[in-house]
Design goal:
heterodimer, A: mainly beta, six-stranded mixed sheet, five-stranded antiparallel sheet, B: mainly beta, seven-stranded mixed sheet, globular
Chain lengths: ~110, ~120
């Protein structure tokens, strides 16, 4: 079963706008990661945030983590058509990364 | 290309047939993972290996599924007596495990299975 839920399930924006996706999870975690998946392709790792971190940046990506609410958000600033993809959060229960538990994903469409 | 590779990329089979997929991890990665992803859902963990040892299996891995990693390099995932519910994308990932640090998993392109 899925660990978490992503919200919204689908998001459509214009190029240049910001996109915000949220993820909630159920159990305690060691870290949370975000992945991107283009249609019919494998997953690409975007960013990892550890349970003792509250915010992290990577290029146009900003991730926040609120462990008290068991939630995370991914912000993509100044979106581009090439950002069109599905975005998944995944949690790891320990540092060994034995298995990742994924949410259901947000399907982002960026219109040119 | 030195990433994770999977073969075949697509497989169409009839219900009741056996299928086998192969995954070649990134060279020197000692951990290999299998996930299954159905349409519109996130991937679900199936099993993982450290070298040739299969260390964890999900409840999703019924007795019709078997995975091997005989020499600690490539892995195969076999599904016997396929059912229509087995239709999904099967994803492989690999990582280099260090006990004291997080180990990022690198994913392959997946094998899409369609059971008619």
């Amino acid at each position: 079963s899925q660990q978490g839920e992503e919200d919204p399930q689908a998001l459509s924006i214009q190029e240049g706008e910001n996109a915000t996706m949220n993820c909630s999870y159920k159990t305690s975690i060691n870290n949370l990661q975000w992945y991107r998946q283009n249609s019919g392709r494998g997953l690409v790792h975007l960013i990892l945030i550890r349970s003792n971190e509250r915010e992290k940046h990577s290029g146009r990506l900003r991730v926040t983590l609120d462990t008290s609410k068991k939630s995370s958000s991914l912000l993509i600033t100044a979106s581009r058509a090439a950002d069109t993809a599905s975005y998944f959060c995944a949690t790891a229960a320990n540092n060994a990364g034995n298995m990742l538990t994924f949410g259901g994903g947000t399907r982002l469409m960026v219109k040119p | 290309d030195t990433g994770v590779s999977q073969d075949p990329r697509h497989k169409i089979t009839k219900r009741g047939q056996n299928v086998t997929f192969r995954c070649d991890p990134i060279s020197e990665h000692n951990r290999l993972y299998w996930y299954r992803q159905t349409l519109g859902q996130g991937p679900e963990f199936l099993t993982y290996f450290q070298n040739e040892a299969q260390l964890e299996k999900s409840r999703l891995l019924s007795d019709r599924f078997s995975a091997e990693r005989p020499k600690g390099s490539f892995s195969t995932l076999e599904i016997q007596r396929t059912e229509q519910g087995d239709s999904a994308m099967y994803l492989c990932a690999s990582s280099f495990h260090l006990a004291s640090s997080y180990n990022e998993q690198f994913f392959g392109p997946g094998t899409r299975l369609t059971v008619l």
